[in-house]
Amino acid sequence: xxxxxxxxxxxxxxxxxxxxDASYRPSASGRQPFQGMDLSGLKKRGQGLRxxxxxxxxxxxxxxxxxxxxxxxRCDLPARDLRLLDPLFVYPSTILGREKAxxxxxxxxxxxxxxxEVLLLNSLDSYVLQYVVELQRRLTSGVGEVWQSEGPELxxxxxxxxxxxxxxxxxxxxxxxxxxxxxxxxxAACTFLDSQAAELEIEAYPLLDELTSKxxxxxxxxxRRLKSRLVALTRRVQKVRDxxxxxxxxxxxxxxxxxxxxxxxxxxxxxGDQSLMGFRSNDxxxxxxxxxxxxxxPELRRLEKSLSIARSRHESMRSSESATENIEELExxxxxxxxxxxxxxxxxxxxxxxxxxxxxxxxxxxxxIAV
Length: 371
Known about the structure:
It is a multi-pass membrane protein. This is Magnesium transporter. Magnesium transporter that may mediate the influx of magnesium. It is found in: Membrane. With about 375 residues, the protein is of the alpha+beta class. The protein is about 65% helix and about 10% strand. The chain has 13 helices and 6 strands. The chain has a 6-stranded antiparallel β-sheet with strand order 2-1-6-5-4-3. β4 and β5 (about 110-115) form a beta hairpin. It starts with a helix and ends with a helix. Mean pLDDT is about 75; it is low at about 15-45, about 145-170, about 285-295 and about 315-320.
């Protein structure tokens, strides 16, 4: 058998033989190689630990190291949702409402929002740090003020749509935690895109005017690069606008994003079941086994059925009323930023039309010279 193995397998290189011998040869100190080393750390290093910034409902922040599978269990998310937050990949802007979390991917802001915390990928980007600082300021002050870098346009639109009462309220509990965290993310993305559009406008109009006065290869190349940037920015703005509009058109998706209400309903249902089990135990019945309809007294079965029906009706009425109110709150919140991002899109559309008109003028001039 050994002879057959030697004939079939190629000879090992000398370097591999030396490495194998060295791995089993004692060193001068008498210790085996790799002895005392923490080899489990090599396995941990390959588990994909990532640094996250955690902000709780009180505004306290901390840096935590969590791997992908722990984060999936913690937030009850599938792996495909976490891939949207991967900084190594470029995904279009997305807002997803899940059972226990909201996954937000808006420009530089990539985070997971739950009813108790915000988990943000740790980054040195200035907009990420500004998001954390702004969220902490709002949670600690309890006043829903607007993003400092945004202009008066959004404030005017909010006032015209009755947002003064919402954002001027000093009550920290007017909006649930997840909506306030989502609002800061929307503000950061919309103001960033609006500033990018404003910078493009400042650069574009003088360049186009120069091109009309002097047609040259250099000016044409500069306009071509400008147009490429305009197309890329328009696509990003359009995606954010479509994402907000899609959420506003689907009441089910908006209701799914109310995490605080769902958590409170689950807790009340759990405590209601616990109290019912305690009621059975006090009457001498087993709390672990189901009540037999034959062995149970008729009065107890009727009372249990009445309590169950009353609790289910109360929970359904309360959930439907609160869902309607919260959908209206979230819809108003999304509508404000839809108006802002739509204004940014109109700026870019006007700029594109100006570029097209300039190109038509240049073609007319070149045609007249050729004739």
